[in-house]
Amino acid sequence: MTDQTPARTEAAAADTLVRLDVHDDGVAVLTLNRPAQRNALSLAMMSAIEAALDEIAGNPAARAVVLRGEGPAFCSGHDLKEMRADPDKASHAALFAQCSRMMTRIVRLPKPVIAEVGGIATAAGCQLVASCDLAVAATTARFATPGVNLGLFCSTPMVALSRAVGRKHAMEMLLMGEMADAETAHRFGLVNRVVAPEALSDTTMGMARLIASKSPLTLRTGKEAFYAQVEMTLDDAYAYASKVMTDNMQTNDAVEGIDAFLGKRKPVWQGR
């Protein structure tokens, strides 16, 4: 992944559900670690992801996040065996509520998240990609919302997917349930870049390092503002964004950034 030694590793044991590595360059790498189950989102896995996101949110050393899957799959979606083992309606309601909370946690995390997709991302796994701020796919990656093939429409993945791609493309994926290759996902707008498998990690880590080099205050402000304004009317969005930018202009980092640009020097961020 990188030749840089992590400054700190959380849950690094091989039998844990996720691994969290925070590097000296400000990049947190969150790895889904159920390769034998194609990183299916069991209840325990989702709880582990939420805990890791909370850890990242509270760690000022983590300024950008790479989300990846161990093994050949990124994430195959929900654990269907677990879902069928407890068919009670209340259990299913609790599962989907937890999944929705986890996905929303990614969107509201005050740090940018990049999905690194090397293999399949299906159903809730595709939802996971769509929930991230950016996504990079290897040419080997495949994407699908195939619930319709099982008699179970991908309704919760639809929420993230319909906000990441155009309506016609979202409906094509949801209604047909077919696997889309990486180039199709790029054309739909689900991923930002498609690269060779051997370049995947370097590409995502390079993007994450570049983002992590920016003012953490500015990143937090911008991410929050982006998702807030896309749900507003045009007039409300401009009014809201104008206030955000006015407030942003008063921060130390904005003053430092502008002065550094004018003085042709590198800025020194204070995060305030």
TrEMBL record:
Family annotation (Pfam families): ECH_1
Keyword Cell membrane annotated: no
Keywords attached to this entry: Fatty acid metabolism, Lipid metabolism, Lyase, Transit peptide
Keyword Chaperone: no
GO function term, MF aspect, one: enoyl-CoA hydratase activity
Domain of life of the organism encoding this protein: Bacteria
InterPro entries registered for this protein in UniProt: ClpP/crotonase-like_dom_sf, Enoyl-CoA_hydra/iso, Enoyl-CoA_hydra_C, Mitochondrial_ECH-domain
PANTHER family membership: ENOYL-COA HYDRATASE DOMAIN-CONTAINING PROTEIN 3, MITOCHONDRIAL (PTHR43602:SF1), PTHR43602
Family the entry assigns: Belongs to the enoyl-CoA hydratase/isomerase family.
Record's function text: May play a role in fatty acid biosynthesis and insulin sensitivity.
The protein's name in its UniProt record: Enoyl-CoA hydratase domain-containing protein 3, mitochondrial
Organism: Tistrella arctica
